[in-house]
Amino acid sequence: MTDPSLHNQPRRGRFITLEGGEGAGKSTQVKLLAEHIRSLGFECVVTREPGGSPVAEQLREVILSGAAAPLGPAAEAVLFSAARIDHITQTIAPALQRGAFVICDRFADSTRAYQGAQGKVDQALISALEKVAVGPYRPDLTLVLDLPAETGLARAHQRRTGAVDRFEAEGLAFHQGLREAFLEIARKEPHRCAVIDASQSPDEVGSAIWDVVQERLSSALARKAQTL
Ligand code: T5A
Fold first, then answer.
1. Whose C-alpha lies nearest to ligand 1, atom 4?
2. Domain boundaries of the chain, sorted by first residue
3. pTM above 0.85, yes or no
4. DSSP of the chain, one letter per residue?
5. Is the pLDDT of residue 224 over 70?
6. What is the residue with the minimal CA distance to atom 37 of ligand 1?
């Protein structure tokens, strides 16, 4: 569980996550959004999952190398959640408490989609893990980058320098199912999530994201840096 003492600390910053399938453009947009927020004078911490803290980065290696795949999707969900606990404790919670924006490339919705919907891990287990790992550190805003699985996989293939990772190696049907899973999450939680058409150019996607951020987080953006 995330350090229980963190649960009672005031959370002054804003937590934004980007989700979507492989090659949807999340890393590209995380960078653009952080530049935009920083240009307004705010502190903005950029992080990612799995990873984002020393122990979580070690677990990233274990999971994405495929070393844990023989243990099955439920065990992988446990490992992603363990990494998330360290990530929140070490990186996300301290940044939110000091009033920073935090932008995270993937978070708990990826566990729901990859291990839950597509890995067929029991929903009750996914929910229990999320409750334990995330606690009150739910995102204020989740941007779901949506595009056809074929387009995302082609982009990921073009960019790749090393071996294909654990999940990119799954078949097309898995990735098409992921797209549906992310859209379903957005449908169920419209107040937290916004779906962005990620098939446009990077600048067009960035502009659509900025429109949503301005609309949904207007009160935070209206405040001066350091007093978020
Ligand atoms: N996972 C993760 C789980 O199964 N459960 C979990 O709980 C969590 C947290 C992480 C893997 O772990 C899984 C999901 C993943 O399989 P990763 O290495 O972090 O793996 O990879 P991804 O998150 O999938 O990220 P990718 O790097 O594949 O894609 P991105 O970040 O969505 O895309 P990006 O920005 O790197 O762009 C890819 C390429 O497309 C170009 C870029 O220049 C780049 O070459 N591009 C565009 N091209 C045209 N138009 C645009 N709009 C473009 N935007 C970017």
1. 114
2. 13-225
3. yes
4. ---HHHHTS---SEEEEEEESTTSSHHHHHHHHHHHHHHTT--EEEEESS-SSHHHHHHHHHHHTTTTGGG-HHHHHHHHHHHHHHHIIIIIHHHHHTT-EEEEES-HHHIIIIIIIIT---HHHHHHHHHHHHTT---SEEEEEE--HHHHHHHHHHH--S---TTTTS-HHHHHHHHHHHHHHHHH-TTTEEEEETTS-HHHHHHHHHHHHHHHTHHHHHSPTT--
5. no
6. 25
